[in-house]
Predict the 3D structure of the following.
Amino acid sequence: MARRRRRRRGQGQGAVKRKSDDGAAAKRRQERLINARIYQFFFDALDAAADDLARRKRAVDRVVATSYPEAVVYENYSCSLRQTSRDQNPKFHVMQVIESKGCSFFFARWGRVGEEGKWKIEPKATVDDAIEMFEKMFRVKTRNDWDDKDDFETFPSRYAVFEES
């Protein structure tokens, strides 16, 4: 019985080579292999691009990066706000919660668009204190809660979210 199975599969003694194993079948197998490699390369490139985008979104402000090169933004606590009125240049306000070597900071930079502006880094005892400061400043500047940023409402003479990172 074992012999019969082998013969049916074409692996036993005296098995005849199939015509489908000629050059055309080998070419199709080669094409499938190449297509699989192309798809794998494409999906690897997409994953790398997504990782790069996530890293860029969490980039610390350039002012902080010069002083603290190992600093990272804590989770998603980073945003850039803009305020525009008719009679003056637009203003910006950047806020971030930053971690560096086990320390937590609240960072803010503000000023007129096109200028570096003023900035401050406030050390905090814990990350929760820095988050609390971030959420408080976001509320003061925008009159919106950070937790409800998806349903953001713009108010006159208040900042609006320009870029969330």
